Amino acid sequence: MSTGETNRECGDESDTGQSDDDRQVTPVSGPRMLLRAEGLAVFAASVGAYYALGGPLWLFVVLALAPDVSMVGYLAGARIGSATYNAFHTLVAPVVLAAVGLWHAAPFLVWVALLWAAHIGMDRVVGYGLKYPTEFSDTHLSRLRNVDDGVSSPDIETTLH
Predict the structure, then answer these.
(1) Alpha carbon distance 98, 96 (integer Å)
(2) Where is the sequence biased in composition, kind Basic and acidic residues (predicted)?
(3) What is the pTM of this model?
(4) How far apart are CA 88 and CA 67, in angstroms?
(5) Using CA atoms, how far apart are residues 27 and 48, in angstroms rounded to an integer?
């Protein structure tokens, strides 16, 4: 079965009438670029809110790279390492922490959540993505790099369909 047939089954071709071979991914419209732009927006909004809420510079310096401590999980192997890293590099926990901080009027929790979100946003901007349990460099953004560049591989097609 070809990629175009797979996409028709997934309903991807119905709106455009084009197969994958007819579509062009531009640097601006590619998923990787959009995820990086989203990361920049998260970073800018988080840092802006942090300073608007009076967050101290010392806390920013101390916690700027704190989520990267999660890489220690890779000492136990790629599966545990990727799970640990991903747990600290998705926006779920910082959003929950910010909500708890707002609910309890605890500015310190909100500051920590904003710095955490800023870290995640900056990681996306520079191209660090969520990890697959194969190896540290195998990320959702590295796989999208191949898609944006028009390179096709069985792993990418399996992942995307």
Answers:
(1) 5
(2) 1-11
(3) 0.72
(4) 6
(5) 28
Task: Give 10-residue mean pLDDT values along the chain (161 residues).
Answer: 41 46 57 90 98 97 95 94 95 98 98 98 92 85 60 42 37
Token pair for 116 = 């955490």
Per-domain residue ranges of the chain: 49-150
Cβ contact 125:141 at 8 Å: no
Question: Roughly how many angstroms between the first and final C-alpha of the chain, as a whole number?
Answer: 13
* Closest C-alpha among 134, 127, 137 to residue 158: 134
Q: Bin 135: left if φ > 0, else alpha if -120 < ψ < 50, else beta.
A: beta
157 is written with which tokens?
């097609």
- Quick one: which of 95, 97, 73 has its CA closest to 85? 73
The type of residue at 144 is L
Tokens of 84: 């640990």
DSSP annotation string for 46-73 = HHHHHHHTT--HHHHHHHTTGGGGGGGG
Return the residue matching tokens 């989520």.
67
The torsion of the CA quartet 32, 37, 38, 42, rounded to 10 degrees, works out to 140
